[in-house]
Amino acid sequence: MTDRPADQADPGTTTGRVLVLLDGSRMSYAALQAAVGIAANTGADVLGVFVEELNQLRSAGYGFAREVGGSSGISRPLAAGDVEQRMQRLASEARRALAGAVASYGGRQSLSVARGHVIDEVLALAGPQDLLVLGRVGWSSEPGARLGSTAKGLVRRSRGRVLLWCESRAEPLGRVVVFLNDHHGANGRAVQATAEVVRHSHRPVTLLLGADSTVSADDLKGVAQDLGIQESELRVRSLPSTDPAVVAGILRQERAVELVLSRECTLLQEPGAERLLVALNLPVTVTP
Amino acid sequence: MPLPTPLTGDQVYHVCPENKLDFVTTDDVQDLDQPYGQDRVLRALEFGAGIRAEGFNLFVLGPSGAGKHELVERFLSLNAARQPVPPDWCHVYNFRFSDRPGAIQLPAGQGQQFKKDMSELAEELRTAIPAAFESEEYQARLQELQEEMAKRQHQGLFEIQEEANRNNIAMITTPAGFTFAPMRKGEVIDPEEYKNFSDEEKQLVESKVEELQKKLQQTIQQIPRMRKEVRERVHALNEEMVQLTLGGPIGELRGKWSHLPDIVDYLDAVREDVVEHAEAFQDGDNGPPAGLLARYKVNLLVDNAETVGAPVIYEDLPNHQHLAGQIEHRARQGNLYTDFTLIRGGSMHRANGGYLIIDARRVLTQPMAWESLKRILSSGEIRIESLERLYGLVSTVSLQPEPIPVSVKVVLLGDRMLYYLLSHYDPDFLDLFKVEADFEDDLDRNEECYELYARMIATMARGLKMRPLERSAVARLIEHASRLAADQRKLTAHDRVLRDILSEADHWAGQAGADTVEASHLQQAIDEREYRASRVRERSREQISRGVVMIATTGEEVAQVNGLSVLRLGASMFGQPTRITATARPGKGQVVDIEREAKLGGPIHSKAVMILSRFLASRYAGDGELSLSASLAFEQSYGGVEGDSASVAETCVLLSAISRVPIKQAFAVTGSMNQHGEVQAVGGVNEKIEGFFDVCKEAGDVRGQGVLLPASNVEHLMLRADVRQAIAEDRFRIYPISSINEAIELLTGLEPGEPDSNGEFPENSFNHRVAERLEKFAEASKKRDENGEANSSGGKDRD
């Protein structure tokens, strides 16, 4: 049912960098900590990406431009100089935060500052082997958004692995849930990503099977082997429906701390995929 | 005048006839149900224990070691067994005022069940409520709620964004909020390009942007209200879940405890509290905070589950905390914490509905304990307050538990002095302790007493788990009890002394390998006690035998007599002779008490010397003036003299000094005297006689010596065997005297002589000699006065 992970022979190394998208928001710094944690375990380089959003710069160039406060609703004039200054400040804060976080374990890092459209700039920097880490929502979290437009776009368009980070309740006994369906290649990539997660966290794993999927005892043994865990640490659950509420319910029951699924899987291919991501309050790794 | 005859052996000792004791050993004798000879105390206890009126608490007064505690406890236990068991009391959390824990009364024995029920409820809450929050139903409803609210919240923004998009205006998220700008194909138009727009187009864009900004402002400003609404709806959902979860267990408990409205009210308060704190139960892993669940515990303050009848409590350390209870604290990281579970009841709580026995001296010596006790008895309720708070030393916030109504009969045990002092100085005392139970020190020794006293001894012996006493040992103990009472017609009721002698006799019987305690073992116990306490006595006797302290026991001396005194050291006392001397010369009717002048004499002794002085004047000076300057001294006495027991000896020695008639040193004298020369009883006669006997024995053979003592003291004699032996062999004599004349005749061998109608004493009589010498003193004084007057008038003339 699954392909063997390519890097099983040398589990301590990764083939790509860890890219983390920094925009100065609280969630982006949380994502930075998660990215640094992964890089510290795998030894990968960390590349911070800070994009000076072109649309934002342009909008400030209008004489009538005003900014409506996300919390207060108060409207005030917006000047291009102010926006430039703000972006520079956020970039230097991001640089400091990145350097500080990576210095704690002695890894290598660099920050790429680009001007343009965020999704395009990130996609231009990220290779297929790189892991892209970003907060599931950026500055729009304040007025109540639960999934930002950048996250939506990158999940859909990224060629490599994407980790949508979100801060969730600490669950000492929580499990990593990996969704599998009939797409063998996608399953293999999801299992491989899961193996990398549990290699360092030593958490048990739940295989969440799509409605029509089954798994034999031999397959199960193989998956456990691929994941590098005991068979007793592996549990199988079937998903009766792809309704986001049902999926969220099952993940709660499993005390899931992270969900791993392939971009190719049915859950993300169906029209309600974005609703599912909105409903899930846990980090989600989306593999190619 | 016939001289008094010396006492016989039978008169100086009241033997206990063994035929009065109808048993072989004390094993054959039944226990006494009631203490013997303490009818007054028993009636007082019965009255005090029975009366329900306020303030009728008891004070049992009697000497220490009289067995007050045992008697009171035994009596009250019997009495209490017939009374109902008082209720249980517990403290619970007060949900309205957390610093004032509530008190709940339950029927006896139900406190434990209530505590268990609440503990089980708390345990159920610990698991059932988090489980309810973990349930799929709750999570789904919560998710729905949150999604709905998020949707409503986001909807406004989304609609504005849609409207903006429709008008080719971009809504752009910035770090601080949102901004709008014209766009084309999803990209914001370059401001330079915008300059090329026609004025109409620009006006259209800008007015739309302004409109969108206003809408956005309104939408964002509604977000806090919507968030509040979410919180309220989540709270309502939580409450609903908790209500549903709690319904079963609390309803069950309400039914079970429906007979106690206080508990039903408390259970309702618990339910409200849990609902109010529903969110605190949500943490399924760590469970609700321990502090929260601890609020539902029950502090069972008084548990009468095992109590039979009314409680009888003895508080051996009656300080404020032990009586009224206390609030303990737990140290956590250097800070002290307390809560209602750390309230500890005192002996007043435990004795509530029954009896509390307290040692009066102990309660008076503990800071604030006496005041606390009175406060509880006056108010009829127990308030638990710390000592620091009562003294006003601390002002930190602490608990003020609800006072518990109290109905307790307090029995104070103390000596008589304490009772009288409290009666005199404490105005509350007699209001609160109206029943006086006075212990008898001694019991009557009559024909009926032997059987009862023997049963009392047998009861004691069995209580001490000692060997049985043989009849002879009991007889010896009865005789010793008379000696301890210092009265042939009394027996001591002093419980501790009797128990100690019995225990010691049992020890000596054990040493001798005997199965029963015999008279010899009892005598050994008495002798050993005497010996252990004899160091000072022996040193004193040694001083006499070596002549350091001068005491003559043979011959005759003018103006010198052997007086007798008693020294009390700790629990033991012994007698010893003291040489009393006198001087006499002409003067103005003055008898100088050297002891008083040297401030070594007490007031009673001074009074006795004054009586003596007036006796002399009355008998020998008649209507004239007593021309005498005399002095009296206790030789080699350095420790002070008190009492009037030497006044007969002092009179005799003073008369000897006046008359120059010698006194027989073979006698020692004790007795007090009134102004008419009648001899009155004194104390410690046994010790005095034995003391003189021992001195005589150590000075050589006892032959012809004796003691003069008041006739009214004869029935107090219970002398030692060796003294009795000497009396029986007529080597030692004891003369009972009634008047000073008898003493004079016995001491001097001269007839004292009675005055005739003219007040003249017969020739050659002792009194005649005294009167004759006093006349000479008077003449000498008169001559001197005349000379003095002549000298002074001559002087005047010369002047």
Topology, pairings included?
The complex is a heterodimer of chains A (288) and B (799).
Chain A (H helix, E strand, L loop, with lengths): L17 E4 L4 H17 L3 E8 H6 L6 E4 L5 E3 L2 H24 L5 E8 L1 H8 L5 E5 L13 H9 L3 E5 L9 E6 L3 H18 L3 E5 L7 H11 L6 E5 L5 H10 L2 E7 L3 H4 L3 H7 L4 E4 L1
Helix pairs in contact in A: 1-3, 4-5, 8-10
Chain B lengths: L38 H12 L7 E4 L6 H13 L7 E5 L9 E5 L3 H25 L1 H31 L2 E6 L2 E8 L2 E2 L2 H4 L4 H58 L4 H16 L13 H5 L4 E4 L9 E4 L4 H5 L1 E2 L2 E3 L2 E3 L5 E2 L2 H5 L3 E5 H6 L3 H11 L1 E2 L4 H5 L12 E2 L3 E6 L1 H10 L3 H4 L2 E4 L3 E3 L4 H15 L7 H15 L4 E3 L2 H17 L7 H14 L2 H11 L10 E3 L1 E10 L2 E14 L4 E4 H4 L5 H19 L7 E6 L12 H13 L2 E3 L2 E3 L2 E2 L5 E2 L4 H15 L5 E6 L10 H8 L3 E6 L2 H9 L17 H33 L1
Parallel strand pairs in B: 1-16, 1-17, 8-13, 13-16, 21-26, 23-24, 26-29, 29-30
Antiparallel strand pairs in B: 2-3, 2-7, 4-5, 5-6, 9-12, 10-11, 14-15, 18-19, 20-25, 21-22, 22-24, 27-28
Helix pairs in contact in B: 1-2, 3-6, 4-6, 6-7, 17-19, 18-19, 22-23, 23-26, 23-27
Catalytic activity (chain B): Hydrolysis of proteins in presence of ATP
GO molecular function, one term (chain B): ATP binding
Enzyme class (chain B): hydrolase
List keywords for this structure.
heterodimer, A: about 290 residues, alpha/beta, Rossmann fold, 2 domains, ten-stranded mixed beta sheet, two-stranded antiparallel sheet, 10 helices, 12 strands, globular, disordered N terminus, B: about 800 residues, Helicase, Ruva Protein, domain 3, seven-stranded mixed beta sheet, five-stranded parallel beta sheet, 30 strands, disordered C terminus
